[in-house]
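[Automated response] Your request has been received and processed.

Submitted sequence:
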Amino acid sequence: MELVKLGKSGQVSIPRAILRRLGIAGDQTFLIDTTPDGAIVLKQAGVYPLEIYSDGRVREFDEGDRLTPAEAEKVKRALKKTR
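Generated structure:
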C-alpha cells in the first residue's frame, strides 16, 4: 500500500510503481466509485468511439445487405434440401 496526498484542486497522483504493476500507461480513462465503508475505487474503463449514422447511410447498409436474385435462388434451393 502506498501513501498519496490529495492536492488543493482535488487531484491525486497514482504512484508510478502501482501504474506499472497494473500495466497502465498513457491516457487512460477510469470509473470512480465509493464503498459504504468510505473506500474510493478506481476501475479502468474501456472507451470506444461511437459513430452515428444518418438515415441515408443506414439505407446504404441495407442495400448492401440485400441478396441478388441469383443469391436468393441459391438460398431457396439450399433451404429446400434441409427440409
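Summary generated for your ticket: The two ends are 65 Å apart (CA to CA). The first helix runs from residue 16 to 22.
If you did not submit this request, please reply to this message.
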